[in-house]
Amino acid sequence: MLTTVLDTADLPPAERAAAWVETTGQALISTRVSFLEPDQIEARVQAMALGRIQMSVLSYTPLSSQRTPRLIRQSDPEMYQLALTIAGQQSIEQARTYASVGPGDLLLYDSSRPFTATVGPNPPGARAMLLQFPRQLLPLPEKAVAPLCGAALDGRAGVGLLLRQMLTGLADTHADLTSGDSVRLGTTAVDLTAALLAHHADRQTLLPTASRQRALFEQISAHIATHLGDPRLTPRAIAAAHFISTRYLHRIFQQHGTAVSDVIRQQRLARCRRDLADPAQCTVPIAAIAMRWGYPRPSDFTRSFRTATGMTPSEYRAASQDMDRGQR
């Protein structure tokens, strides 16, 4: 569950800066902070435990934050932090690497190395998500990761986009997750982080097999979800799109307790059921809905739909409309 750890709106203005320093020092890592507009501080911290991993959502007015050698000597949890900028512009310098990032950018930094981060007044303030995890959980050697600390990583394509969507999805669905879900999703988030870093370092072979397979499963699942309307979406086509054999594709899905053909069929039928039950689409021909979600032959769609639901598509639509009228 994503819970609010600090909201400066609940505090007198004179106490807000100190509360931010104390809260972030306890929930994240200790830094030396200077707000650029100390009389107009607005900041909020929300946090969610994912096992040994933590995800936070932060918003703050313009500030400068420093992780100094002295603070590191005093306390170093030996954490990596992956930041996703949601709004605003931020800059960071770590290990002689400087980056300026905006919405959609990802950035990795290391609690064991000094850094300086700045959020300027144009636009005022920023909002970001932060994935924090012990360094030993990242299945990559430090020598491969170190050059990427403080460097901007694209969150708009490939593995970066998948990781960004997962983090924002966690924030959107946190209330529905069990503790077991949270732990598993935390592991997946670190695996995707490792895959992204390996991609940028061109060191994918350094990833352990299990991490590569979990990251690949997430990539393929996202590919399926965005290509459901293509009737040519088959295991062979999916394998070719990801440069793997069909046999290896089936093995990856078997390790997750399912089959790739089952996933395609279940997701297509779920979209069809949603559209058939939608009162706004009651005049859309059933064949058009079937075609929209990858069923070019009505007979194939009817047979698959009846097997899954025990009703024909027309019967399902009629029952859904009757239920909708009864609820009015």
TrEMBL record:
GO terms for molecular function: DNA-binding transcription factor activity; sequence-specific DNA binding. Residues 306-328 are annotated as: Disordered. Keywords: DNA-binding, Transcription, Transcription regulation. Residues 218-319 form the HTH araC/xylS-type domain. Gene3D superfamilies: Homeodomain-like (1.10.10.60). InterPro entries: AraC-bd_2 (IPR035418), AraC_XylS_family_regulators (IPR050204), Homeodomain-like_sf (IPR009057), HTH_AraC (IPR018060), Tscrpt_reg_AraC-type_HTH (IPR020449). It comes from Streptomyces argyrophylli. It holds the Pfam family HTH_18. The keyword DNA-binding applies. This is Helix-turn-helix domain-containing protein.
